[in-house]
Amino acid sequence: MSGPTSGTTGGTTGATRWNERPLDVAEVDLGPGVRAGFSSRAGGVSTGPWAALNLGYHVDDDWDRAYANRSILGRWLGAPITMTSQVHGSTVAEVTRYQPNTRRKADAMVSTAREVGLGVMVADCVPVLLADAEAGVVATAHAGRGGLVAGVVPNAVAAMLERGARPGAIRAAVGPSICGRCYEVPPGMRDDVEAAVPGTGGTTSWGTPSVDIARGVLAQLAEAGVEHVEHVDRCTYEDERYFSYRRDGVTGRFAGVVALVG
Ligand SMILES: [Zn+2]
Predict the structure, then answer these.
(1) What is the distance of C-alpha 87 from the center of its chain?
(2) If you measure from the C-alpha of residue 33 to the centroid of ligand 1, how many angstroms do you get, rounded to a whole number?
(3) Strand partners, 67
(4) Which fold has domain 26-260?
(5) DSSP symbols for 94-114
(6) Rounded to 5 degrees, what angle do the CA atoms 245, 104, 85 make?
(7) 213-223 vs 152-162: helix axis angle to the nearest 10?
(8) Domain spans of the chain, in order of start
(9) What pLDDT, in 10s, does the model give residues 158-211?
């Protein structure tokens, strides 16, 4: 299904200036008329630590290449992608039209507009995509430790319900993130997160305290009544197909993207 489009048609600058490699997007089914998936490192035009499909403008990559990469992923999605400035909070921004390079601070987005792409950037945090195809509502959430505790995922679901979605009709996809065997934290931090979201505290594969953010997200979705959940259960820290901030430090960002299309 993924269509690496060589020979740009979007009228965007950039993507034709560099060699563009095939995309590898993990597509997820969030219902009829909804296009959604999680990108990987594959398919873009960035080089070095950002190779190749870096989508972040804030990670010291060449801005034009990051812009071209967003255009490439937008073509896969079938809609230009709006991304916010993510601050590990719980604010939900409504997006009614494409907003390029927005500095709007929000860790979740909701939209009822067709062909308006929403994108959540990550490199270890948990990207969450949501859709109620029947009601015509889509949403994203960026859940790191802070967002999980602050409730960004239930807030995104609530914003959907305010726009006509029903919990039983919502489909969710939880994307690649650092797993509970790899995400080491200080003991006090593990205890705090475990207290806020029970079931998240654990131990790394090397025996130190850890947090399992994805597990917490899945619990919060269940609590919100969202039963149809797909987990693309790949660990960014272990799987080099993905950017991992914890593993690499200077690195790019991949994304979960969703749009009402067709
Ligand atoms: Zn792992």
Answers:
(1) 14
(2) 33
(3) none
(4) CNF1/YfiH-like putative cysteine hydrolases (3.60.140)
(5) E-SS--TT---B-SEEEE--B
(6) 0
(7) 30
(8) 26-260
(9) 999 999 999 999 999 999 999 999 999 999 999 999 999 999 999 999 999 999
Query: What's the CA gap between 70 and 260, in Å, rounded?
Result: 18
CA of 205 to the centre of ligand 1 (A): 8
As a whole number of angstroms, the longest Cα–Cα distance in the chain is 52
pLDDT exceeds cutoff 90 at 14: no
CA–centroid distance, 183 to ligand 1, in Å, is 7
Output the CA 140–ligand 1 centroid distance in Å: 23
Which backbone phi and psi does 254 adopt, to 5 degrees? Answer: -100, -175
The pLDDT score that the predictor gives to residue 8 is 39
**Amino acid 6: pLDDT:** 41
Confidence of residue 3 (pLDDT cuts 50, 70, 90): very low
- Say which DSSP state 64 is in: H
Order of strands, sheet of 137-143, starting from the edge strand that comes earlier in the sequence: 92-94, 108-111, 137-143, 126-132, 171-174, 228-231
Q: What is the distance in A from the centroid of ligand 1 to the CA of 165?
A: 34
Q: Residue 20 has what pLDDT?
A: 74
> Does 153 score more than 70 pLDDT?
yes
